Each structure stands twice: as structure tokens, then as C-alpha cells.
């Protein structure tokens, strides 16, 4: 993906969805324009390993669609469980059922292009969600993915402290090679990791924690468990696999390990010291905005953005796709309360279960 403008980093919750400028007509998205509110939004999510899709994205989109359509709209939801062929079938079903618009988080951004073309021929708009699919996409909503990688790497270097020099050996556990976001995270991270040595780097099929654990074991065998200064993990699920592999190798004090998505298990690992950081991505902003995009498109509006949030992206097949890139925040044990708790993402009781009560008390989380 190539961006044609740059979005400045701003605090995670600073975007006001009510004023995001996603419509070119009336600013009230609830009232009908060219059609009524009986709208079906197809939502296709990519996998179940990452719990965010079922626990956050889908429920938020469903609620927002109901709000924007005076409870007359509905969401047709499907998760492909990391199978591109299953997602093809799910999208074909939605095309056959004549949904009004499709929100697509692609398993394989290249392989799905044919289905996007089919939807276009059926006059069904497709909005790429979270990762940019190929084909005639109408709009794109995601996070600033290169910034995610930069934030992960910068925070990792902070975790290394005085050891952040060329002698520090880093293992990079990157995401799936079929996910264009993974390449962007990696590219962003590498711009920051030029002061250390990347001793091993892996692209991890399907973002699988099991594959990440296998790769980590390979890195431990080649580098030595005592010579790994830190681990760049592109997301939280893989960080869990990495921690398991390090424990299996006899490591008792974990090196700094990154993550992304603020999964509950990852936040608890941060509290206990097993993971150094995660990237908090405000899914409410992303999911609310894509619901607004979807309803606006069906009701006859063009999808536009005000000058503050406007961006355009290019995929390998399409140019100048309207886009909104939502900023992110690094979370360590020092700011869990001021980010995840303050925003209502989690309650203290969610994080500080019996196993983590003492660790929570040590960092003032109670």
C-alpha cells in the first residue's frame, strides 16, 4: 500500500466520529437519502485466533448499523477462520443474497480480488476493513500500519534502555505474508531498529501462535537463549507463542517482547512482566467509522473526509482509494490505567483476576 498523504500521530481517542466528514451530503446519517433504512451490511472477518473480531469489531459494527438505520438495518456476519477459500464462499453467499454493502477484512488480500470484482458487477460496494484488499474497493478504513510498526520498535528500544546498540540481538516475528498489513508493520519497525542487530526474522503463516513458537525455538537454537536481547512480535497472539517457547527453553526473565491489539491475555502478560508492550488500537473508532461509511454509501452519499483526516491509498490494482487511518497508542504497564481502563476498553476486574492481583497491586492497578 502507498499512501499519498501522511496522517500525523495524535492521541488514540482524539478522533470525533460525529465530525469525521464521511458524508458529502446531509450530516445526519440516520435519515434516508436515495433509499430507506432496510439495509443489510455483509461483514467478513478473517480469523478467530485474534479475539478482537468477535469480541469488539463485530458487536460494535452491529450496534452502530442499528443506530444509523433506526434499528431497521441488519448485519450478516461471517468469519473465515484464516481460510481464503472459505472467505470466497462466504462472500459469494453474500453476493447471491444481495446484501447492500460488504465490509471486508481479507484473509488473503490478493486472492480475494476476483470476489471483489464479482461484488462490483453485482453493484455491491466493498469497503476494505483493517487490511487493504485488491480489486475495485470503494473505501478503506484501518490504522496507520507503518506507524504501528514504528511505535512497537521505538517502545522496544526504550525497553532495552542502555543496551539498545548494535550488539543487541533482536528476533523479529512478523505477521502473515498474505496480509499486506504485516509488510507495513515490518517496514515501519525496521526504520527504528537500525541501532540494533536483527539476528533472525520470520514471516509467520496465518499469524499463528503455534508457528511463532516454532520459529522462536529455531531462533533460540541458533542464537542462544541468553543472547536474545528482545523480540519484536507483530501481534499479541504470536507474543503468547513466543513466551511459551522461551519458557520451554528455560528462560525465567523475559526479554522485552512487543505485541499489538491489546488482547486481554497480553495485557495480563504485561502486568506480570512476561510481555513489555502492546499497541492499543481504538476499535470503536474504526468499527463505528466503517459502519458509517457502509450506510452512507448505500444511501447515496460519496465517501469523503474532512481535511484533518483525509487520506488516499493505492493498492496494487486501484489508485486513490478514499481512506481513513486511525492513530494508535503504545501501552506498557505504566499507562494501562490511563489508556485501556480510562477508555472503558477493559475494567480493572477484567485484568486483575486472582492470578494477577499481586502484580496489579505492584503497579497500582486496583
TrEMBL record:
Domain Periplasmic binding protein, residue spans: 41-300
Alphabetized PROSITE patterns for the sequence: PROKAR_LIPOPROTEIN
Signal peptide span: 1-24
GO molecular function per UniProt: carbohydrate binding
Signal in keyword set: yes
Zinc is among the record's keywords: no
Compartments it resides in: Cell envelope
Superkingdom field: Bacteria
A Pfam family matched in the record: Peripla_BP_4
One GO CC term, this protein: outer membrane-bounded periplasmic space
Assigned keywords, A-Z: Signal
Protein name from the UniProt record: Sugar ABC transporter substrate-binding protein
UniProt source species: Streptomyces adustus
Amino acid at each position: 500500500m502507498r499512501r499519498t498523504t501522511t496522517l500525523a500521530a495524535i492521541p488514540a481517542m482524539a478522533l470525533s466520529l460525529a465530525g469525521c466528514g464521511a458524508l458529502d451530503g446531509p450530516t445526519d446519517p440516520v435519515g434516508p437519502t436515495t433509499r430507506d433504512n432496510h439495509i443489510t451490511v455483509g461483514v467478513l472477518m478473517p480469523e478467530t485466533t485474534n479475539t478482537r473480531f468477535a469480541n469488539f469489531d463485530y458487536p460494535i459494527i452491529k450496534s452502530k448499523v442499528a443506530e444509523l438505520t433506526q434499528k431497521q438495518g441488519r448485519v450478516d456476519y461471517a468469519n473465515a477462520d484464516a481460510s481464503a477459500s472459505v472467505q470466497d464462499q462466504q462472500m459469494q453467499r453474500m453476493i447471491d443474497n444481495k446484501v447492500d454493502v460488504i465490509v471486508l477484512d481479507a484473509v488473503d488480500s490478493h486472492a480475494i480480488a476476483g470476489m471483489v470484482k464479482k461484488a462490483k458487477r453485482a453493484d455491491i460496494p466493498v469497503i476494505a476493513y483493517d487490511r487493504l484488499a485488491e480489486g475495485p474497493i470503494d473505501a478503506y478504513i484501518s490504522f496507520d500500519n507503518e506507524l504501528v510498526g514504528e511505535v512497537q520498535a521505538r517502545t522496544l528500544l526504550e525497553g532495552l534502555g542502555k543496551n539498545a546498540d548494535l550488539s543487541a540481538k533482536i528476533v523479529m516475528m512478523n505477521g502473515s505474508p498474505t496480509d499486506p498489513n504485516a509488510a507495513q508493520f515490518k517496514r515501519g519497525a525496521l526504520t527504528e531498529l537500525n541501532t540494533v542487530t536483527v539476528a533472525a526474522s520470520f514471516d509467520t503463516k496465518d499469524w499463528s501462535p503455534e508457528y511463532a513458537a516454532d520459529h522462536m525455538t529455531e531462533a533460540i537454537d541458533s542464537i542462544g537463549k541468553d543472547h536474545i536481547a528482545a523480540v519484536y512480535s507483530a501481534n499479541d497472539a504470536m507474543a503468547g507463542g513466543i513466551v511459551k517457547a522461551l519458557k520451554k527453553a528455560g528462560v525465567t526473565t523475559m526479554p522485552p517482547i512487543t505485541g499489538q491489539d491489546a488482547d486481554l491475555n497480553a495485557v495480563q502478560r504485561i502486568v506480570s512482566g512476561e510481555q513489555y508492550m502492546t499497541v492499543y488500537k481504538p476499535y470503536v473508532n474504526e468499527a463505528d467509522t466503517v459502519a458509517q461509511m457502509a450506510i452512507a454509501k448505500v444511501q447515496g452519499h460519496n465517501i469523503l473526509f474532512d481535511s484533518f483526516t483525509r487520506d488516499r491509498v493505492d493498492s496494487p490494482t486501484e489508485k486513490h482509494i478514499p481512506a481513513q487511518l486511525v492513530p494508535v497508542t503504545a501501552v506498557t504497564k505504566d499507562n494501562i490505567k490511563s489508556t485501556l481502563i480510562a477508555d472503558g476498553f477493559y475494567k480493572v476486574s477484567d485484568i486483575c483476576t486472582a492470578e494477577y492481583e499481586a502484580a496489579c497491586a505492584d503497579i497500582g492497578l486496583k
